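On clarity, I found the account of how folds are encoded harder to follow than it need be. What matters is that the chain and its backbone geometry are given together, residue for residue. For the editor and my fellow referees, an illustration may be useful. For illustration, here is how one protein appears when written out as sequence plus structure tokens:

___
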Amino acid sequence: TPSSGTTVSGTLFVAADAADDNGVAGVQFLLDGQPLGAEVTTAPYYLLWDSSAVSAGSHTLAARARDTAGKLTTSAAVDVTKLIATPIITWPTPAPVFHLTVLGPQQLNATTTVPGTFTYLPTAGTVLQPGTDQSLTVTFTPADAINYTTAAAAVSITVIDKTAPSVIPPAPISVPATEMAGARGNVAGSV
């Protein structure tokens, strides 16, 4: 266990059956031909393997039994594949901001548990125009490109227009004095 062709990740159970007419003294598990953990000296013969310690790609697992007379027998290798993982990005939706607010760490604050670099669009220092549901995106490039692939995420932000509305007074109206006559005494001129 596991069987050949298995895709592995995290911690998994590796086991082997061993029997010998002289008695089994121990079983040494092998990863890519090298010892994996300590020899297991009592049945059942198993160990827990943390596959995060190996690079992504193809690997072989085998078990080498040692009998009480010191004779060794190695099982056929089992091929397993550790996939390249995609980091999970956590990025809370930023609170609305007022127009003329410069984008910075309050808005561009994505995180992941994998070391690497975040690249934001628009970039820090950008001032967005007023509007709702404006897209912010991030691309994460892991420091360990052997075991992790790049990842991307997006959130939306609202930019509130805080500019005071402009008031345009109406154009002056000219009313002939004859239309105003009789309304309140004599009015002359135009308004």
